[in-house]
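Researcher: I'd like a candidate sequence for this fold, 525 residues long. If you have to choose between options at a position, lean toward the conservative one.
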């Protein structure tokens, strides 16, 4: 059993979830808190988080931390979304909020937010044989996510959060008809590209998450707000949502607050939130919306559990798609990238007794093997430093900021100088991450060297960790897979020469010599 905590700092509210995870069983909720803070109000109006909002959120975070610390959680992940992404004083907020929480807060991209939402829905309400659409209307952004047989397909993050739209368009109560028309046109324009792509697919159902969808489904099914958990997995038809939108958009706030299922604070922003849901359903000719209580917090818990169990010792399919797409975007020869990644994975497993790193570091080594050469896109000169910059500043859904920093630094040190204390790129890393970079760096260099020809001449490796030596035996590829050099297999002399240049590095990092020899026969596997 393991206990985790997730904190989601949204544009409208801050949410915390602590849960105990047991293998092959649903998470057991230990604590769940939500506090409306309207963090995005000042951001969407002025571009900055106001001092009052910072103070309010810091107080909420401090209280939430006190709750989950009493529960003896092992790992905490805290994320901030649209409002903090947009704020010009983001760094000030993150520093103060992290201090209040006692954990570092990570500002995530819309794509990572979408991934976590999808993971949350998948973990609590799997649809292994369906292609479904998830719509999450937050305070600052809306995430539109296609899930195909429980795997994330495409995802869009649009500035269509209910709080943001309320401030942009609906300044009168009840809303002015002209303003409603402008709101609807704006929504149609923003969702247009996504609708065009999704409209070409067969969608089995639409699932709404977050408080807007909860309020809409609760109102239509007459579920009191105090029992809103009963709305989970319930349905509201598109005609019913259309009637609700027509009603709430002509009511003043007092009357909206009287509707069963819509809370007093939600009533303030229910009109734009409902508009987004309705315009999307109508644009796609979808008959109904189902509500799921899952969200970012549930996705974080599922993600933490998977990482801690070692399930992600290799890249997940979604992560592999991310790094392969990045490699291809920056013109990396994909066969070389895949070969280096495959060899790096083998080396990580073979050297486990030497590096003693947790299994999840294996996927970071694999990711760096895909991305170490992307810096050539900028310049062949000092391309390793350009690779570091590109990875550090890229949106990589499925990787935390700490993980992205480790991958970036492995790319930085895949050639030339070794890590040194005076290197500024290492200053923000914790001791454990620095240690991982140092131990993994020789393995990445070796994996890269074992495809020095770029012709995939090495099929696989056999590794022996001896008292004073690492002995690597190269299994050549079959002669008919590359240009043959000998009857026995491919000539790997260039790969052996390149690997032997790493002897001093292995001696310095691991205190062992490195010996690389060819196998006399090729591998059929």
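Model: Candidate sequence:
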């Amino acid at each position: 059993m393991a206990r985790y905590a997730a904190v989601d700092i949204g544009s409208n509210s801050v949410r915390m979830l602590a849960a105990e995870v047991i293998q092959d069983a649903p998470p057991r909720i230990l604590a769940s808190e939500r506090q409306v803070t309207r963090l995005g109000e000042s951001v969407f109006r002025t571009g900055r988080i106001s001092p009052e909002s910072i103070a309010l959120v810091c107080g909420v975070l401090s209280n939430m931390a006190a709750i989950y610390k009493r529960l003896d959680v092992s790992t905490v992940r805290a994320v901030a979304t649209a409002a903090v992404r947009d704020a010009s004083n983001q760094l000030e907020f993150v520093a103060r909020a992290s201090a209040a929480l006692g954990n570092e807060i990570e500002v995530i991209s819309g794509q990572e937010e979408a991934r976590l939402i999808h993971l949350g829905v998948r973990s609590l309400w799997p649809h292994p044989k369906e292609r479904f659409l998830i719509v999450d209307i937050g305070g600052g952004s809306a995430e539109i996510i296609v899930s195909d047989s429980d795997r994330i397909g495409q995802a869009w993050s649009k500035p269509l959060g209910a709080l943001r739209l309320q401030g942009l368009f609906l300044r009168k109560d009840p809303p002015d008809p002209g303003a409603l028309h402008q709101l609807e046109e704006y929504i149609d324009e923003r969702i247009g590209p996504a609708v065009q792509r999704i409209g070409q697919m067969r969608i089995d159902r639409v699932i709404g998450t977050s408080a807007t969808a909860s309020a809409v489904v609760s109102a239509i099914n007459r579920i009191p707000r105090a029992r809103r958990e009963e709305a989970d997995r319930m349905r509201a038809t598109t005609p019913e949502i259309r009637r609700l939108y027509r009603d709430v958009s002509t009511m003043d706030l007092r009357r909206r607050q009287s509707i069963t299922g819509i809370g007093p604070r939600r009533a303030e922003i229910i009109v734009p939130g409902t508009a987004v849901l309705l315009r999307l359903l109508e644009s796609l000719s979808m008959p109904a919306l189902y509500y799921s209580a899952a969200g970012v917090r549930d996705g974080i818990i599922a993600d933490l559990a998977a990482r801690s169990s070692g399930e992600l010792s290799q890249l997940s399919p979604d992560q592999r798609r991310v790094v392969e797409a990045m490699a291809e975007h920056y013109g990396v020869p994909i066969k070389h990238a895949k070969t280096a990644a495959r060899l790096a994975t083998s080396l990580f497993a073979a050297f486990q007794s030497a590096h003693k790193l947790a299994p999840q570091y294996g996927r970071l080594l694999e990711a760096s093997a895909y991305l170490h050469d992307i810096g050539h896109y900028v310049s062949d000169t000092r391309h390793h430093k350009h690779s570091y910059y590109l990875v550090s500043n890229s949106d990589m859904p499925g990787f935390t900021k700490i993980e992205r920093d480790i991958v970036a630094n492995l790319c930085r040190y895949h050639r030339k100088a070794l890590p040194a204390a005076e290197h500024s790129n290492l200053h923000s890393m914790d001791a454990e991450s620095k240690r991982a970079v140092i131990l993994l760096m020789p393995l990445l260099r070796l994996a890269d060297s074992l495809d020095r020809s770029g012709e995939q001449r090495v099929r696989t490796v056999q590794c022996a960790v001896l008292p004073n030596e690492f002995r690597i035996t190269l299994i050549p590829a079959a002669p008919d897979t590359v240009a043959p050099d000998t009857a026995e297999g491919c000539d790997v002399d260039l790969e052996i020469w390149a690997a032997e240049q790493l002897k001093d590095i292995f001696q310095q990092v691991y205190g062992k010599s490195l010996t690389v020899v060819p196998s006399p026969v090729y591998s059929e596997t």
